[in-house]
Amino acid sequence: MQQHVFAAQVAGSGASVLWSEHKEFVLIALAVFVGQLALITGLLAQRRRRQRAERALRRTEARNSAILCAIPDLMFVFSRDGIYLDYNAPSPAALFVPPQEFLGKHIRDVLPKNLAQSIEPLFERVMTTGQPVSLDYALAMGGSDHYFEARLVRCDNDTIVCIVREVTDRHQATEQLHQAQAELAHATRVRSLGEIATGIAHEVSQPLAAMITNARAGIRRLDDSCGVQEMRAVLQDIVADGQRAAGVINRIRGLVKHTPLRLARLDVNDVIEDVVGLSGPMLRQHQIRLDVERKGTLPPVTGDRIQLQQVLLNLVINATDAMKAIDDRPRVLEIRTWQRDSYVNVRIHDSGPGLPESAVRRIFTPFFSTKPEGMGVGLSISRSIVEAHGGRLDLASNSSNGATFELELPVA
Prior knowledge:
With 412 residues, this protein is an alpha+beta fold. The chain contains 9 helices and 12 strands. The chain folds into 2 domains: 70-166, 2-Layer Sandwich (Beta-Lactamase), CATH 3.30.450; 176-410, Heat Shock Protein 90 (2-Layer Sandwich). 54% of the residues lie in helices and 20% in strands.
């Protein structure tokens, strides 16, 4: 038994000696092992992160590629100097020229001269301000004009992204809409003339009758061998009556003629004078007193004379219709012009019964009319015309004593 105890003590003593002699090596080995284990774990984690990043990148690239394929717009990448670097197109047919004819080239060598000169300054503006810039332009492609809108955005310090969308269909639809509006406006002008036709016929018949009377008087005086001065006076009366009739006819021809939009510097007072000449017979027929207060020093406006005549004539006809049934007070139509800030204003007030409250909000709605025989397009077309001139047309006031419409046009 003692021998076994002694052997165990000797063995323990040897192990202690061995540990004492080699513990540094063991600890170093353990540290290396732990370090290698940590390194392997880190590498595995980094590999997993890289794999996740690569998968995310592939998903992003696939998503971006799908988005680019789904977008019907053209996309171009330019250098800040205007050189084509890259592009994306929904189809080759959408390009102005094949890719090999524009990649690596300057826009001056690819696009028409006028278009390139319009685009070049935009590159510097985009790079300087960092704000997107838009441009509308047209290109002749396939024997017809195609219309585009482009938007340029700075991508970084050296590149610019340009997104181009073709808007030919929208442009054609807009042109067709404008043509339809012009046709409708023309029909409205003709209808307006129909409403004042009786008065116009009377206005023309008066100078014609006077011409006939003067001519017969001249014949009689010739038979009586009258003097030259008397005959000159008779002929001058005939000329004056003829000019009076011609003036009425010319105003009618101007309204009926189907002409394109012609913008020019106009005096609103002159336009009102034309409308007064056209509507005067109608106003006299319905015993309406016309009060016109024109400011004599109005600045000119830019507009189409015929269209502005149409607007004012429509307002005068509406005012006349509103006063036809009035018999308890004078029928008065007031037209006033003045300048307010950078606008010329025209106010038309009638002494009619005013508009029904239910009609006030809908008065400019297309095809809404307070008259049983009305088409409901006069005021809506008038407002469209005025807005196309950069102005506004509103119902300024409405009461049982009459309605007031106010027209505002910007100074030229």
